[in-house]
């Protein structure tokens, strides 16, 4: 009840300048956000798990304000990216003169349809910049999904695979971790992060997929297989290939 009353009071405040310190509906909502539970973070963002549902953790910063608004979302009838766009559009009076920086931490990368919706949203909100960190690549073998990610990057969106610093940041800022456990987020294998980073390079460079992922249902193991062609070796930066620890570059003898 208290949250509802504050939201009602905030709704009457000036929404023209989101960078001001005045209390707004959006700010009140985020101040009273519910952090996700540790088990939710673990099942949604473990790169080895192929969970169907998606989770979004996001940060919004307006203008020169040092305040960062944080919240989370999950799939409903719509994908979580569409939910964010609708929420942003409905609950915030957009002011084109004020820059807005948005950072997403997604358990799955956007599908091609969401990529298209994101580009449309950004074209209608040119002062919004978007950075996306993803834990896994969604159906990355599909040509439409690969093209959708390339189109996002070509439109100015930054897309990266979540690494240890991003996982640590999310644990500290979005998770209702137990007292004294701020440094003890679930340690996921770094290898999976590097494998997805390798595949993202393939997508960006318009190369064929090199990472194949499958699930052995009997013991719930997630398996991967790397298949590299000559053009992968010729195009992908050597440090990205070597970072997996699974690849040896061909040696040319003189």
TrEMBL record:
GO function terms (MF aspect): cytidine deaminase activity; RNA binding; zinc ion binding
Gene Ontology cellular component annotations, sorted alphabetically: cytoplasm; nucleus
Listed EC numbers: 3.5.4.36
Cofactor or coenzyme needed: Zn(2+)
Localization, UniProt: Cytoplasm; Nucleus
Residue ranges occupied by any CMP/dCMP-type deaminase domain in the UniProt entry: 28-152
Protein name (database record): C->U-editing enzyme APOBEC-1
Gene source species: Ursus maritimus
Lineage: Eukaryota, Metazoa, Chordata, Craniata, Vertebrata
């Amino acid at each position: 009840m208290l949250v509802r009353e504050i939201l009602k009071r905030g709704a009457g405040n000036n929404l023209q300048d989101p960078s001001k310190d005045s209390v707004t509906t959006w700010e009140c909502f985020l101040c009273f956000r519910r952090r996700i539970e540790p088990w939710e973070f673990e099942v949604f963002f473990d790169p080895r798990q192929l969970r169907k549902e998606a989770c979004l953790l996001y940060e919004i910063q307006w203008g020169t304000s040092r305040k960062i608004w944080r919240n989370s979302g999950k799939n409903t009838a719509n994908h979580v990216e569409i939910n964010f766009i609708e929420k942003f559009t409905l609950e915030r009076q957009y002011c084109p003169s004020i820059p807005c920086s948005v950072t997403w931490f997604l358990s799955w990368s956007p599908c091609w349809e969401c990529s298209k919706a994101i580009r449309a949203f950004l074209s209608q909100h040119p002062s919004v910049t978007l950075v996306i960190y993803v834990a896994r690549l969604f159906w990355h073998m599909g040509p439409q999904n690969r093209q959708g990610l390339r189109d996002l990057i070509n439109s100015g969106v930054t897309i990266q695979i979540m690494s240890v610093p991003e996982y640590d940041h999310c644990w500290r800022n979005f998770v209702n971790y137990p007292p004294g456990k701020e440094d003890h987020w679930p340690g996921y294998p770094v290898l999976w992060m590097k494998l997805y980073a390798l595949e993202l390079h393939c997508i960006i460079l318009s190369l064929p997929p090199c990472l194949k992922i499958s699930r052995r249902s009997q013991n719930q193991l997630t398996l991967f297989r790397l298949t590299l062609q000559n053009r992968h070796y010729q195009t992908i930066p050597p440090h990205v290939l070597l970072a997996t620890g699974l690849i040896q570059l061909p040696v040319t003898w003189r």
